[in-house]
Amino acid sequence: MSFLRIQNISHTYFTKKSAKTALSSISLDIEEGSFISFLGPSGCGKTTLLSIISGLLNPSSGQVLVEGRPIQEAEEPLIGYMLQQDYLFPWKTIEENILLGLRILNKSNEISRKKTFRLLKEIGLEGTENQYPKQLSGGMKQRVALVRTLAADPKLLLLDEPFSALDFQTKLRLEDLVSATLKSFGKTAILVTHDIGEAIAMSDTICLFSSNPGQIYKQISVPEQLRNLTPFEARAHPEYASLFQTVWKELENLEK
User: Fold this and answer.
1) Strand ranges (DSSP E) for 83-210?
2) Separation in Å, CA 181 to CA 40, 86, 135, 168
3) Quick one: 162 and 143 in the same domain?
4) In a domain? residue 17
5) CA distance 72 to 55
């Protein structure tokens, strides 16, 4: 049984004057510990599907199962969501921000707090606990957001273009950091991105989406020799350039 099963998901947005089908007949099985990227043109429904997987949006039809159960029936939060913006509370310290989810979920205890502070140290932010978000760079704030997300120990992490607002050097560093962190914790992750290179460097499998309505056009497996490298190292591997050209041509075909 797959860890995450997306079964025949379709979704239509209705207004008073029109109806727009964003997704049509999406089915996908995702194994635990895998890293999947959703890649495709703007408006193809990638973020809509991410919202449905998270349980924030109910689909027009179909269902999402996590460990064989509908996501709405989960006894405790199973999913962490990391967005393009860090959404840290500016009036709270870094310590207060990273512990917020634990307090909301009534999981704040000595063990969980120590684990969270240890993770903050591991990603290079020890000593920032009493600072405020305005005192940190964009990349540092995204690292804080990652700690806050992982503190609640979600089984599935949803990443909606989390690096797109950062400069390229910071983006590359965070790709490595996030990839290493998720692998060390054995997390399952889904990344929504417009960046072909990012999808190749970070993923096990790339799902290419077509639009009008959004559908999975093709699944592309990333070669094992790339998956065993850090994202930064993967970008320098000969297989990376070859796969980049393959994905690029597939996306061009979608636009014709």
Assistant:
1) 156-160, 188-193, 205-210
2) 26, 18, 24, 20
3) no
4) yes
5) 6
